[in-house]
Amino acid sequence: MSLLRLCAFPKCLNGFTLLERSVHRVSKADHCHYCLTIRKNAERRISEPLLELQRRHFSALIPKKEDGKKRLWEQSQLLDVLDARIQQLQSDIVLDVQHSKLQFVKALKSDSGASSGKSLKNVSGKRTGVPKSGHTVSNATSQKGKTGGKDDGTSKSRWMEKLIQEKKTKTNKLSQKLGLEDKPERKRKGKQMLPGTSHTMISTKGVKKIASNAKNSSTVKRKEDSVDTRVPDVLPIRKAQRKGKTLKEQYPGLSESEARAQELADLEVKREASAREQAAVDDIERRLRDWAASASLEHVKDNREARVYDDVQRRVQCYLEACVFIGDVDRAHHFLLSHHRMISRRKLLNIESYNIMMRVWAKKGSLNQIGRMFILVEEAGFRPNLSSYCATLECMGRTPNCAPHVINRVLRQIKEDGLSLDEMFHHCVFRQDERDMVLKAIQMVTPEYQPSIKHVRHMCSSPLVKEFYNERTDAEFPKLAFSLEELRKRFSRQLTVEQASTVTIQSVEAMKPVTPHMVKMRDLLTEQRKVWHKILVEALRESKLMLSSSPKSGRLSLYPYLYLLRDQDYADIMIQSLTNLPPSGESLHILAKHLGSRVYNTFCILMKGHNQMVDKLNHIYNEYVELLSQDAKVLNVLPREQWQVLEAEHSSGPSLQGDECRWPHAVVLDLGTYLVDLMVKHMKVNSDVLNSAYNRKLIPVLYHMYTFRNTRQVGFIKPHPILTQIQQDAMETTLTFDSYVMPMLCPPLPWTSAKFGAYLLTPTKLMRAVPGANQHEIQLEKCQEGDLHPVLDSLNQLGNAAWRINQALLDTIISIFNDKGSEKLDIPPPLSEAPKIPRYIHQELATLTLAEKAHVKREVVKARKRCSEMHSLRMDALYKLSIANHMRDQVFWFPHNMDFRGRTYPCPPYFNHLGSDVTRAVLVFAEGKPLGPGGLDWLKIHLVNLTGLKKRSSLAGRLEYANSIMDDVLDSADNPLNGKKWWQSADEPWQALACCMEIANAVRSPDPTQFISHYPVHQDGSCNGLQHYAALGRDVIGATSVNLMPCQVPQDVYSGVAQQVEDFRVRDAEKGMKVAQVLEGFINRKVVKQTVMTVVYGVTRYGGRLQIEKRLKEIDDFPKEFVWDASHYLVQQVFSSLKEMFTGTREIQDWLTESARLISKSGSTVEWVTPLGLPIIQPYHRTRTQLLKSNIQDLSLQISHDSKQRPDTVKQKNAFPPNFIHSLDSTHMMLTALYCYSAGLTFVSVHDCFWTHALTVDTMNKVCREQFVALHSQPILQELSNFLLKKYCSGLPSEVKNKKLLDYRRLLLLLAKVPQTGNFDLERVKESTYFFS
């Protein structure tokens, strides 16, 4: 790069200075940090003025402490190191330790130096003295030194006593932990003595002699590759320490000789156990060494120090990008320089911060400025990356008549740094015409160069998908029932919606008759919004002027973020948030997050338009839909593969994948609180707007107040009752949502990487996470290119399923919604049906007793809580029904992403098929398929499943029952609200009604087998979590209980547990237990179902008791005074029953829990990789508090996902078993989705509930079972064990030498000891009818 600066930037510095800098250019990889610092300081001093040099020289002449003290401190530090090494070289069990006679003096106090005033400590944590000159460390026979101190005898005696006691305590404790002694463990301070060598006597004449003997002694064995965890083969016979017990008391009934023989036998057993354990440890370490030799392992390293500034660095990047976007380049430049010049702030910068400014100067064609940026990069200790050289070449491409030899210098420098041009074009993100300019510069010197286009398919290494990707001759990838032209029109409509960033739709409440009062309130609300909009625009302009009038170039501020959008856009966002504010108010944190997120999403959409990527997206998508349209040729490729090919072919122009830095959570909240503050201060209304009798004055529309939530004081924004009354009376006919809330009008973009997919313009994460957490993104970026393909392809398959609305059913639901709702049918009533909040005047309260006042207060709180809940439920239903009504004539799609465990979810938050019974009922497949010979039967069986009846009946029994109630089914379809209303008694009433309508239409058609059905039929797993546990453990009893084993009738694990609990109750009732007697007749399937279902997902006894308590309270006849005792009793019996029924499950669960506990205790978070290659990390860390200052209120954020904090051991161990099982059920779902797609099926899932057409249920069931068997045929637990061993037990000895040895041994042995499995034959699952049914 020195040659690059020398030739390319001759104007930036004079020739002498440039030559000096070029000659002294040093690679960071070739020199240590201190050498670089010394050299930089020397160079800086040469160029400084004389006065500055005088100041530096003057400061250097300040007298320091005498050299003698410095030498003593150095000797003290060296002695500590040697003492630590001596302790490391001690044997595991040392009975006779003769300590050397040491002479010490008190450490000299000093205010400077390496110690910084802190006392030095030895390995044991004790303070050590410093030997005076002439003193030596000698053996027991050595004579006392000649120059001993005056307190030599006393000091030596005291220190020797401490050392002897400490060694003795360590020896005893280690012996107890190894199981070699009966004495119980005592708690004490100090670190565990590390074993590793046999005992040796060290005799020296000086410090150097100590080091020499320790290094050369033949009795000291050092292992370079691993920590020596050996236990001596021969253990000395010791006197039993029995806490005062004699030998006869310990072995009663035996003679003294027999007792002694028994004691020796016990010791021999312990020796054998220890030897077996040591052999196991040696074997594991040998495997680890073999793995290390065969492949480069990724060791767990504590990178907390490197991650300390991650959030601040991202915030700096976002600030610079915002400044550049608004055109304030000077502010960005001064900000970068101010941080670079101050060493304390320079650590807040990274190479991307400099690249942002390089890209700016490249646009301007300023080679001199880019040269200065390269000098700054070198001073900061960074290496230029591909983006840095890309900006340089872009600048040269924009520079007229750029010298070819300068470009050649850059290209040579790129090659010298181990980079390539093809990597630049494949990995760099280009905006506007940057790619063309870079290519232009290269072709100035190499006219024939063209970036290579890669069509290489990177295959996933998992054997589970090898057949899916390699054998495509028989694949029948499904097409959409739309023409090519129609799909292109739908893309244009969706693009328009996302560019507008918001969607306004009609509310279903608009169907109500309009009264004159409603018209008056609507006009008043419209007028007030215009006034507020104008006021907010003016206030925003004034606040921006204040921020710009006092610029602080070195400080982060909100100034650039307030210029990203137009002033009118900010005002619209604030007015919209006011409309959605509930009457009870909203916390400042949530409201600020909502406002900041809306600004960020709008900014991202504008940025993509600014980067000119919309036209390119339009061109590629128009070709991409040829793969999906029914009138185009059949292509034997997947959507992801097709998109990647098209993007490579149209590589010119901007990149579709943006590189904008995602705003940190603190920036979002900062901006949001600033906007909330403007709203509270400037939005006002006349007090007499509703009642002219009041005195006119301006009052705030919003109030900032405080309330308590779970003992924490929380800032709250509450609307004035006047505003609430106006909004309720107006009953507005429109609702406004962000564009990402609505389903898509065209097939979503296929996921091609962790950063591209789903919506056209709206930013979307592949993996959901709490705001501010980024460890998941880091894990995904580390993945090999092919490892994520199965996950991405399954998400694409789920997103390509087209939907439409069941209009007849939707109209029925809306009619009930507008007619006071129905709690029985899960249609929330309006607020007019809410209980009135009691109001009391002061005189009335004065006459009440304390108990009566407390009762009144409880009633008021209860009424307010009920009103708040009713409002939330009502608005949720209003949003869902309004969106459904808006899409009633449309075909739409749900883009999908996933959580950190791999479980998939639709991106639209309100209306999707993962919702309640109401939303699921109104959704049907857009594509219809004929029922075929068995489709009608599957519809009838599905109807019986929805009723919740016949759970333990066979499929034939359910079909027979369905045929017997056909009159009720047809009556429900014809007269849902005025007939017999049979459907209302079902567990899922609205889905049951939709199924009744579908069956009625089918049986009344001329030929039911040819009837085109759009209705999705569900196949639900039988307690799917327990199914995975039973398959992992090959547990025959457990497998039979959850229908992995073929049976004539379905086995209901919930009924089985209920029956066993009832048996326990009968036994206890006979013994006279009161609570068992009270529970007679009340134990049933429903009471225990939720607890049984969630035990596998980590529910505790406390949580299970709450679940059972809720079920008991729902039973009217159960005595309420026994609810607590009964729930406490039942949860114990349920856990006991499950422990007996699923022994293998409990062993695996305990192994996972204990593994997570030891891993997190060692300071690492638990990570694993699913069988499909998806990396998973548990984001549970110790909670820290972050204070976010703002004008309106300081926000105290409780952050539990900060990867810089130590792991939360309790959360890590409790969450590992359920999260691991969730990752397995998501893997099974993804495999089923891929192979169903290959078979041409329409497939959708709700976690462990799979949906498809009635015609293809049999095919889906076959695929589902085959993939479950294929998944569990893999050595899942053994592969997990190997991964955890490689991850957390490699990289020895340097990373383990400071840990407790026994914790390491325990973790090593535990991870290697995979739970034993039974003899259940997995192939039987393929024959099980009720595995999924």
From TrEMBL:
GO MF annotations in UniProt: DNA-directed RNA polymerase activity; sequence-specific DNA binding
PPR repeat spans: 350-384
Coiled-coil segments: none
UniProt keyword Nucleotidyltransferase present: yes
Disordered: region residues: 112-199
A Pfam family assignment: RNA_pol
GO annotation, cellular component aspect: DNA-directed RNA polymerase complex; mitochondrion
Recorded catalytic activity of this chain's protein: RNA(n) + a ribonucleoside 5'-triphosphate = RNA(n+1) + diphosphate
Name of the top EC class for this enzyme: transferase
Domain of life: Eukaryota
Transmembrane segments: none
Presence of the UniProt keyword Aminoacyl-tRNA synthetase in the record: no
EC number(s) stated in the UniProt entry for this protein: 2.7.7.6
Record's keyword terms, sorted: DNA-directed RNA polymerase, Mitochondrion, Nucleotidyltransferase, Transcription, Transferase, Transit peptide
Subcellular location: Mitochondrion
Compositionally biased residues, Basic and acidic residues: 148-169
Domain spans labelled DNA-directed RNA polymerase N-terminal: 492-800
Polar residues: compositionally biased ranges: 112-122
Family: Belongs to the phage and mitochondrial RNA polymerase family.
Subunit architecture: Homodimer. Component of the mitochondrial transcription initiation complex, composed at least of TFB2M, TFAM and POLRMT. In this complex TFAM recruits POLRMT to the promoter whereas TFB2M induces structural changes in POLRMT to enable promoter opening and trapping of the DNA non-template strand. Upon metabolic stress, forms a complex composed of FOXO3, SIRT3 and mitochondrial RNA polymerase POLRMT; the complex is recruited to mtDNA in a SIRT3-dependent manner. Also forms a complex composed of FOXO3, SIRT3, TFAM and POLRMT.
PANTHER family: DNA-DIRECTED RNA POLYMERASE, MITOCHONDRIAL
Record protein name field: DNA-directed RNA polymerase
Organism: Umbra pygmaea
Organism ancestry: Eukaryota, Metazoa, Chordata, Craniata, Vertebrata
